Amino acid sequence: MASCALFATKTPTVGNVKTLKIFVGTWNVGGKCPENGLVLDDFLQVHSPSDIYVLGFQEIVPLNAGNVLVIEDSEPAARWLALINQTLNGPHSTVQSLRKAACPKYSLKAMSKQLRTESKRKLKMCTCVSDLERKNSGDSCFWCQPNNVSQGNLSSEEEEGPDGVICSEVTNYAVHGQKYSLVVSKQMVGIFLSIWVKRDLVQHVSHLRTACISRGILGLGNKGCISVSMLLYQTSFCFICSHLASGEKEGDEIRRNFDVVEILRNTQFPRRCKVPNTCVPERILEHVRIIWLGDLNYRIALSQTEAMRLVKNHEWETLLRKDQLKMEMDAGRVFKGWREGLIKFAPTYKYSCNSDTYLGEANIPPNKRRTPAWCDRILWKGVGIHQLSYERKDSNKYRFSDHRPVYAIFSVEVSVRGTSNSNLIKIEVEELLPSQRSI
Fold first, then answer.
1. Rounded distance, CA 194 to CA 413, Å?
2. Is the pTM of this model over 0.85?
3. Fold category of 4-300+375-437 in CATH
4. Which residues of 240-279 are buried (b: 16+ CB within 10 A; e: fewer)?
5. Where residue 383 falls among pLDDT bands split at 50, 70, 90?
6. Where along the chain do its domains lie?
7. Which position among 54, 55, 299, 349 has the lowest Cβ density within 10 Å, counted as fewest Cβ atoms?
């Protein structure tokens, strides 16, 4: 096994590292919009704030023929975005102004525009060269803005980034008490991913790109993933929000494995930078830090009766021995080299709506019952990343879905640019197994 370094021209100075905290949350909301009065403070752990929030949803719209075959409904995503903004930035944030707007429905595009700052300075997409070098060479990349651009030269028009991704703008001052800026929001049918960054960190985010892989029925996107690639300071990150193949029949785990393989093989981020040999990973496994979240749909390989017995006795360790994802990872058939924190919480699926009763123990016909499972998971891969917590959130207000939300908090080390802005920083990628290199 050999290590891989990306486009190294300069190494960071000793001690030139920052430690940041990242909150990662995933929730299959069962096609339901947030209920009136719902607050997410306890789920987002706002009492102990993170520097970055990565929030992924699945089934943000019902996976019916209309949403899959015709056009996806963006109103639920906009409502969730408004709720997240209200939780992170307070009740007097920009969400209130949208509710008073003339349009009768929430719009994801309109909501994303509302959550952009008023300075009209776009998120810098490239930090590969200094402003002086960029001016002299004429080389630039997508939406690259010089640091000394004047306020008067910037457009106030709403714009979208690659693949329709909504990008935020940089602000150097608080707008309506804003603490966090939305840097990206993207929907693909029922999958929705948004990333929020502390206001003073936004200026250090660059090379933001998205990619979508459609899976499921005829590859139309009722399953699949949204991936976001970005640099934070000089460290590359990739966040993957997925919804994998469903089913609890024997052999369905193979379909989920195949979804993972296809996502890793086919996801490629568009190269926007014109500067040659830049430190911009184009594939998932080239990134230094990778976090995968979502409804992975792996089930428990036990009879419904036996699984329910173990759940009622809180015998998580015994139950985990039959968890399909753990068994497939241990056998090296999927997610080779990835890590997951220790699960110390009850299975997150499948509940009867508006109750704490698993569908497996409900008084319904046997063919409609489901074996409890840890479908909702968060995994990671890379150096300099440490998981601080891994929990599911239980509250009466989260009962409207048949899944329970799950979150993880990570401590990550990022390389910060040295005294010279004209050189690239070395990005070291952890050792990759041969099988991963071939994906």
1. 22
2. no
3. Deoxyribonuclease I; Chain A (3.60.10)
4. bbbbbbbebeeebbebbbebbebbbeebebeebbebeebb
5. very high
6. 4-300+375-437
7. 349
